[in-house]
Amino acid sequence: MQLATSFFMVPESVGRRLKLLALACAALLIGALGGCSTYSAYRKCGFGGCPGDAAISAEVRGLFKQHPALEPPNLLYVQTVDHVVYLSGVLNTDLERQTAESVALEAPGVARIVDSIGVSNER
Known about the structure:
Layout: E1 2-4, E2 9-11, H1 12-32, H2 35-45, H3 53-65, E3 75-81, E4 84-91, H4 94-105, E5 112-119
Parallel strand pairs: 4-5
Antiparallel strand pairs: 1-2, 3-4
Helix pairs in contact: 3-4
């Protein structure tokens, strides 16, 4: 089956891939826009980051591994700056996005979550 785009016809499977790629790019761009808060954390903690940020990111990634719904083919990225966890990537459903956010909040030392996760609705 062909999927119409604004300029040409593409197979439906390619259209899905393009949609997923666009969502992933949008999520990464939104995550990059958190740069203003990153700069203030740099001024506070220096180039090496705030103490404990790397451990928080590792803990969140470990908690995600305990939830099979959050594993591949989903794309999920974690970055911690000044105890604020930034989540980005693409998950299949809004329920998975909510699960990722609540699981990340369980990690010790997390002050808050900034959720920039896109939802593909592929399932």
